[in-house]
Every structure is written in C-alpha cells, then in structure tokens.
C-alpha cells in the first residue's frame, strides 16, 4: 500500500484541498500533521462549497478515515464550529474522525497573545491569522502547553491551566497592557466541547499503521514550504514545519512510509500576510489575476498578493520535500493572458524592504482560450502544453496532475500516484 505526502510548494493556498479530495477516492486515510485552523482548504463538490480549516479534507468521502496527528494544534471552539457545519451538510464523522491525544490545545489566551503581539510589532508585523497558532507552539516548546490528554482529568487540567494562564495573563496585562482572561471562563467554554468530542480522541499511531496495511494514506500538508519555521522566509513564516519533516514529527510514522511526495504548485504564485515575495506583481495584472483566481484567504478573507510562478522556490521545495511529481493547479486562471512569465532566479532578498536583486524571468506566449474543465491532456491548447513543459524542464520534475477548475472532476490525471 502506498502513502502520499501532499505539500504546498510556495506560501500556501496552492489548492491542496481539492487534490486531496480527488486522490482520496482511492485512499482509506487522510492525515493532517501540522498547523491548525490557520489553514483553509476549499472543496467544491456537486456545486456545494465546503471550507475546512482543521479537519482533513478526506472527511467528505465515506471511504476515508480522517486523522489529526500530534503535530496539529487544536482550537476546540473552531473544531466545534467545523463539526456543526459538517453536520448541517449531513456529513457524518462517526468512526471517521480521530484526533491525537497529544495535540496541543489553543487557549483563548493564546489568541489574545497572538493579536497583542502582532499589534505591538506595528509595521513589521507578520500578518498572522490571529488564531493563536504561534503562542500555542511556543508553549509546546516551552513545555507549559495543554494537550488534549490533559482534559481527561479536570483537577490536573485546572492545575496546569493555572500555571500556563498565569504566565499568559502576566504577559497580557504587564507587557501588552491588555485585559486578562479568567481561568473559569476557559474551563467553562472548553470542557463541554472536549466532552462532546472525546470519543474521537486517541493514540492515532496504531490507527495509521493499521489503515496502511489495508490501503493508501494521504498526508495532507497545510500552509506551504516557504512558511516553514525552519526553511521558509523567516520571520515571515508560520510556527510549524510545513515540509516533509513536519510529517515525520507530526504523526510519529517513519520516513520510509512516505512512498510519493506530490508538490502542489499553483500556475502562478500567491502569498497572504506580510513578507518578501520576489515575483510579486504590483500592477493591475496582479489585481486581475487575484480577481480571476478568486484569491481571497479562505481563513481570514484577506486579499492574496499575486505574482508569477517562482521557479527558485519551486526547486528549493522539490529538494526539501523530496518531491516526485507536481500537481499544477489553477491553470485556467491564466487563460486570458497574452504573455506569461516564469521567474527563474534572483539574488539576495532585503528582509527590511523586501526588495530583491537581479530578478530574471523567461517569457512564454499565452494560450488565450479556455482550459476550464478540460480532463484530457491532449485537449489543452498548445501554448498551455508549452507552459507545462517549461515548468517540467526548469524543475526536472514531471507534472502529473493539472487542475482546470475548482470542481472535483475538473482535473487531468497523468499518473496513478498510488501505483509507485
Ligand atoms: P500564523 O500561521 O497564523 O501564525 O501566520 C503566520 C503566517 O502564515 C502569516 O503570513 C499567515 O498569513 C500565513 N498563513 C498561515 N496559514 C496559512 C494558510 O493556510 N495559507 C496561507 N498562508 C497562511
């Protein structure tokens, strides 16, 4: 049986949710391993749009067990909202959703600290999603975090919460001059939610290994390679390892279990939040691409910055994630263009001004016809094929899937990813 890693090659929002959904037809498991509800995975099935933040995208398939690994940070309130949304769409989670008891829990104080810290940074803020992700990972590493397993014993939970929340409230009031948050309000809001979901909380490693004996598993990365805490555009990054290494630490399974690494690459590049973006388009074309591509953050509703495909990043991503093949998404968004550029290199990035030395591009002719909904490679316009070929040549990696629209069936599959 085969396991596939799906990883965003740039700054997230590459369209991973849809590719997970397509592949999960032939999988028994879908596992999230890092991040939290800062992610936003949009799926359109039979015209109905579902945005998932925390729950793996495989949940929309009856044949898939969805698992949240220990590397994910959990907001119980966000989980409850997402579960209610799924229930309203008659999507069952019974025996289909399991969450690692080792997941760290995002507390209301983490959210308040995230927002207060961003405010204090002023113009040099990171542009976080304000969901408490960073402070929760900080506490994990500082060994004062609260995990789901702590919720089994309320007396112990209270003791642990006193310790960590004392520290949070000290920072909130004395350092950031914000209001404190009461322990009782946190216990009151979070414990009933835990009670409702506790049947889904367990040690997930045996489950993953067992599923893998029967069928294929998808490991669903969140965010993208350039947001990786170690390898991304630091400090303008998220707080987890969004790359292959995050899969290993965030699930507890061995690297030998990853049979195929699929890089999800958008036909152009986008970024939400602040930070350097060498191939960014600062003109009307950038705004047009954002409009055609519906480039609005699924989590925060913020407009995404748009630019040309950045090969330097793609190649770094291929190396870091041991990518075997590329799933190219949103090709149809470029349908109207006369000319398409690919950024092939640049020198140093200035992390204060975000200016970049020596940007180099190659130019290709656009195809000026609709690729929407095309499912056969041979039906693509010749210039679109040339664009894909250029990406393959510049990355020395095959393009194995091409997404031509948001719906499940708007896809060209050139390889059976699981038959590796
Ligand atoms: P945080 O993850 O909320 O701490 O935000 C850190 C940076 O990561 C910010 O620039 C966010 O906009 C970005 N970010 C976090 N999650 C996502 C995502 O799912 N897609 C794209 N950017 C993200």
Tell me what the structure shows.
The mean pLDDT is 95. Helix content is 32%, strand content 19%. The longest helix is centred in the middle third of the chain and has 22 residues, at 154-175. The protein has two domains: 3-91 and 203-419, Adenylosuccinate Synthetase, Chain A, domain 1 (3-Layer(aba) Sandwich); 104-200, Orthogonal Bundle (Adenylosuccinate Synthetase, subunit A, domain 2). It has a ten-stranded mixed sheet with strand order 9-7-5-2-10-1-11-15-18-19, sandwiched between helices. A three-stranded mixed sheet has the order 14-16-17. α3 packs parallel to α5 (154-175). With 420 residues, the protein is α/β, with parallel strands linked by helices. A hairpin with a 2-residue loop joins β3 and β4 (48-52).
């Amino acid at each position: 049986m085969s396991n596939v890693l799906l990883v965003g090659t740039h700054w997230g929002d590459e369209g991973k949710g849809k590719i997970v959904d397509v592949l999960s037809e032939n999988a028994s498991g879908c596992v999230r391993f890092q991040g939290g509800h800062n992610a936003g995975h949009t799926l359109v099935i039979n015209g109905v749009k579902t945005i998932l933040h925390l729950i793996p995208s495989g949940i929309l398939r009856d044949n898939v067990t969805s698992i949240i690994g220990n590397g994910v940070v959990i907001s119980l309130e966000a989980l409850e909202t997402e579960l209610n949304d799924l229930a309203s769409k008659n999507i069952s989670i019974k025996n289909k959703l399991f969450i690692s008891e080792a997941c760290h829990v995002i507390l209301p104080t983490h959210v308040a600290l995230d927002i207060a810290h961003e405010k204090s940074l002023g113009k040099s803020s990171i542009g976080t999603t304000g969901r408490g992700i960073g402070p929760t990972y900080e506490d994990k590493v500082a060994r004062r975090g609260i995990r789901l397993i702590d919720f089994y014993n309320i007396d112990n939970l209270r003791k642990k919460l006193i310790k960590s929340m004392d520290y949070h409230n000290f920072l909130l009031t004395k350092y950031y001059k914000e209001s404190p948050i009461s322990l009782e309000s946190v216990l009151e809001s979070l414990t009933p939610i835990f009670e409702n979901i506790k049947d889904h909380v367990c040690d997930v490693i045996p489950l993953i290994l067992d599923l893998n004996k029967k069928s294929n598993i998808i490991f669903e990365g969140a965010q993208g390679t350039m947001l990786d805490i170690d390898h991304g555009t630091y400090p303008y990054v998220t707080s987890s390892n969004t790359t292959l290494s995050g899969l290993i630490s965030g699930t507890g399974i061995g690297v030998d279990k990853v049979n195929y690494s699929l890089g999800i690459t958008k036909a152009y590049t986008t970024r939400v939040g602040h930070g350097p973006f060498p191939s960014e388009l600062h003109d009307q074309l950038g705004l047009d691409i954002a409009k055609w591509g519906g480039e609005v953050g699924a989590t925060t509703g913020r407009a995404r910055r748009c630019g040309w495909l950045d090969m330097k990043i793609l190649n770094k991503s291929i190396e870091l994630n041991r990518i075997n093949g590329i799933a190219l998404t949103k090709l149809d968004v470029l349908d109207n263009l006369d000319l398409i550029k690919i950024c092939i290199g640049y020198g140093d990035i200035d992390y204060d001004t975000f200016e970049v030395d020596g940007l180099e591009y190659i130019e290709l002719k656009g195809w000026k016809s609709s690729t929407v909904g095309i499912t056969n490679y041979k039906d693509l316009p010749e210039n679109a094929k040339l664009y894909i070929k250029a990406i393959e040549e510049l990355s020395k990696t095959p393009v194995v899937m091409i997404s031509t629209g948001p719906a499940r069936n708007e896809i060209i599959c050139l390889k059976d990813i699981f038959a590796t």
